Amino acid sequence: MRPVRTRFPAATPVLIVGGGPVGLTLSLLFSAHRVRHLLVEARPATSLHPKARGVSARSMEIFRSLGLEEEIRRAGLPASHVRFYRGRSLVDPDFVRTEAAHGPTDRTTEGAAEGAAEGAERTPAPGLICSQDALEAVLLRRARELAPEAVEFATRLVAFTEDGQGVLATLEGRATGHRRTVRADWLVGCDGAASTVRSGAGIAMEGPTGLGHYLSVRFEAPLGEVVADRASASYFLTEPGRGGFMAVDNDRHWIYQYPFDPVAGGVPEALGDHRQLARLVREAAGLPDLDVTVRDTMTWRMDARLAESYRRSRVLLAGDAAHVVPPTGGHGMNTGIGDADNLAWKLASVVTGTAGPALLDSYQDERRPLARQVIDHSLDNSRARNGYRIDDELLLTAAYRSTAVVPDAAPDPRADPTPRPPLDPGREHPDGVPGSRLPHLRPAGGNGAASTLDLLGRGFTLLTPAPDAAWQRQADLAVAAGLPVTVRRLADDAPGTAAQWTGAFGLPATGAVLVRPDAHIAWRAPRPPADGAELLGVLRRILSAQPPADRAV
Questions:
Q1: Tens digit of each residue's pLDDT (9 = 90 or more) over 289-326
Q2: Domains and CATH numbers, the chain
Q3: Distance in angstroms (rounded) separating the CA atoms of residues 83 and 99
């Protein structure tokens, strides 16, 4: 008898639960790291509702590394539309329009991308506005291209048990009701604020809920010509209680966000009455004869919550499962995408045996303090009476302190002695300090890279302008021990390279920086160490990996 081919594998190194932007990004990164995995999503398809729209510069750098930057830009709004409108209606002759990089936003929307106007100086991939439904479609298409058997929608996690060695998960097909079990070495919950994974792991959330309630109406209407002279990403209405409009394409596709009081009632009852909702849209737009077709509705609640832990044994959390960020600033989805970038290389290193499981402790140590600061910052924005300002490239300033970062042996004389917060837009950045993101520099030579960030691979990168072969010997010893590191040289003979290097890293031209796969600096040295095995020791320290002779048999 021929064996029956099952739809799912019986076992997988990693099971991802949740196929939103965070889960799909994690799948793409695992494919890039050649880690076998399975992603399941309870929904039958990607989001129909735009939801989040601002894709930050740091998120775009991650998508750039995956070869998706241009496709996502095509799916988003033109840079010229990344502005904020304020007026009594969409046809208010006395409207005000401001640049997204500095202008006020509103507490009813996910916010805008980090400013493209100043982004070119600090990043090769400025942020943009791309609705979540369009973004998810791009990510899913590529995830299925890279791993066709790894992504399954209309499949939900029913329950799981964890025994210290792995996870046994029960999955159910939504269409058939058929259940089966899958054994996974690791389980990652990317399944949102009401996470089944978090609940099953017994991880509590802390923080306030119900800070605001909103009705979101996705509709079609011929508004392109109406807003032609005021095209913006978001249209905030100054009339009290009116909310605002979010552009999907600034032509026919739109979202209307309407604040409501759940105690007073009214809005939930109106959800099924498209005529009433169309009337609400017309009144807010100031166009009583507007042809409106309601396509979809949802209500959402503003919360500000943080998981007490990001990991419990073999179970990890990312995205909204780990933190629920008020949308005032547009950092929620982007913080989750950053989680995926941080976790992917660490879990891949553990799965492939180049790192010890203790490396995963650094995931919480690095990402949870950052999420705490993002939540507090977004809460402050939500309380602002006169709107708030977008923090340009806030997430580019992330600086980590953990066992996966080796601090300088001697203090940098340029450094401020004040302890550095996880995010610090007020501090000059980049500064090349271990833990911070690799500075974006445009290499002066002819190596073909548009940015130092483009020189990175999926392993560690030792970046140096030095022609000294001693750095290559250090790397060769690490590679021989099974630890992935590649030496990449800036064009040391190009005019201005030495000054550019010293200005960004505070190192002489003999120095080098060791960069992690997530583009954060792990270690730096002013010259090749006298000990030929020092880089190998640094890598083992970062990866929590023991020398082969010391490993238990």
A1: 999 999 988 888 999 999 999 999 999 999 999 999 99
A2: 11-76+130-206+305-394 (3.50.50.60), 79-121+212-302 (3.30.9.10), 402-550 (3.40.30.120)
A3: 5
3-state secondary structure 473-529: HHHHHHHHCCCCEEEEECCCCCCCHHHHHHHHHCCCCCCEEEECCCCEEEEEECCCC
Nearest Cα to 218, choosing from 43, 48, 88, 91?
48
| Per-position b or e across 261-275, b if 16+ CB within 10 A of its CB | eeeeeebeebeeebe
Strand partners, 157: 171
Q: Identify the bridge partners of residue 312 per DSSP, sorted by sequence position.
A: 315
- Decide: 55 and 135 in contact? Cβ < 8 Å: yes
- Pairwise CA distance, residues 401 & 433, whole Å: 11
- Helix, strand, coil distribution of the chain in percent, nearest 5: 30, 25, 45
Among candidate residues 309, 232, 302, the one with its CA nearest the CA of residue 262: 302
* CA atoms of 82 and 258, how far apart (whole Å): 21
- Lowest-pLDDT range of 32-41, 165-174, 493-502: 493-502
Q: Is the pLDDT of residue 373 over 60?
A: yes
Query: How far apart are the C-alpha atoms of 305 and 89, rounded to whole Å?
Result: 33
**In this structure, are residues 485 and 462 in contact, taking their beta carbons and an 8 Å threshold?**
yes
Residue type, 2: R
Instruction: State the burial class of residue 383 (Cβ atoms within 10 Å of its Cβ: 0-12, 13-18, 19+).
Output: exposed
Q: Tokens standing for 180?
A: 């089966």
Please provide the average confidence, as pLDDT, over all residues in the chain.
Answer: 88
Q: List the single range of 27-31, 183-187, 463-467 with lowest mean pLDDT.
A: 463-467
> Can you give the pTM of this predicted structure?
0.91
DSSP lists the bridge partners of residue 292 as none
Nearest of 235, 233, 257 to residue 129 by alpha carbon: 233
Q: What is the pLDDT of residues 193-231, one digit of tens each?
A: 999 999 999 999 999 999 888 999 999 999 999 999 999
142-157 as b/e, with b when 16 or more CB fall inside 10 Å?
Answer: bbeeebeebbebebbb
Q: How far apart are CA 301 and CA 208, in angstroms?
A: 11
CB atoms within 10 A of CB 260: 18
